[in-house]
Amino acid sequence: MLKHIGRTCRSLLALALALILALAPVSAVWARSGGRIGGGSFRSPTFSAPRSVGPRSAPVYPSYGGGLGFPLVVPLFWGGGGSLLALLLLIGAGSFLVRSLRSAVAEEEEVGDPQVTVAQVKVGLLASARQLQKEINALALEADTQSPEGLSQLLQEVSLGLMRYSDYWAYGYAEAEKLPLSRAESLFYQASLQERSKFSAETLTNRNNQIQQLPQAALRRAAAGIPEVGEYLVVTLLVAYRGNLGTLPVVKSVAELRQWLMQLASIPAERIVAIEVLWTPQLEGDTLSAEALLTEYPEMRLL
Question: What does pTM read for this prediction?
């Protein structure tokens, strides 16, 4: 009996939700339209094949009297302290070998799982910066997201575009973490999925030059009659790159956020591993309310 009631309640709840979505204004359904531009791979040849390392040769030491090629053959029986001298030399040789082995292991680990930095920058802009939204939309249709040079240009264009609209910045956040390649890949895609989960739909994407866009009829229907007053635009940059950029400040002001963007934009193409640019709303008539921004992006600080 209880199971039957539970099934009935779930059915009624599902029906109610369907009616709400069907009868709700288009703006409410599409309040989370989002766009995504990105490319790169953590499995590129740079990382999948360790660099060529020649055969290791043991260090050569001068030989004394045709014996072993090592200073241990220094006469060990000078006076009565020969045994002590031999012991000290053996300890020194053992320490040298241990250090050499540790250095070799560290080098092999660096070749097999190099260090990669994953940086996240989020900027919340006033809706008055709608022109930036149009520029990013256009960039999504034109950007080359398959080559390192194209990704570098994408990073520069988005960073410079954001800086040109710094007068409209309201909120900001940035962080970077340096990790081994395997962990960096996981962090990068987790961060991407977290941002994408905030969208009701990805209405425009360009991933590795594969462009997908909703039909124009759906775009016009979603954009019809939605006010812009008091709303926001959020742009997120995810960048994975080899090495690091030195010490970067905690973002508390426009100047600090600008410093992050300038340093990311200066990353050489050969150091870039992967990039994603995510922005919401993507549809030109769609909106993001202040309440939604503070709920979905609690990490961002008021600038």
Answer: 0.68
What percentage of the chain has pLDDT greater than the value 70? 62
Residue among 234, 226, 252 nearest 292 (CA)? 234
Query: Are 232 and 126 within 8 A, CB to CB?
Result: yes
Q: Rounded distance, CA 45 to CA 38, Å?
A: 19
Closest CA relative to residue 205, chosen from 31, 35, 41, 32: 35
CB 239 within 8 A of CB 118: yes
User: What would the two tokens of residue 239 be?
Assistant: 């960048």
Can you state the angle between helices 130-142 and 148-164, rounded to 10 degrees?
170
DSSP-derived letter for residue 58 is: P
Tokens at 164, concatenated: 């040109």
Round to whole Å and give the CA distance between 286 and 33: 7
Do the beta carbons of residue 280 and residue 234 sit within 8 Å? yes
What is the pairing mode between strands 201-207 and 272-280?
A: unpaired
In this structure, are strands 33-40 and 201-207 parallel, antiparallel, or unpaired? parallel
User: Which range has the worst mean pLDDT, 122-131, 157-166, 235-244, 279-288?
Assistant: 279-288
Which amino acid is it at 269? A
CB-based contact 287:127 (threshold 8 Å) = yes
The span from the CA of 126 to the CA of 165, in Å, is 10
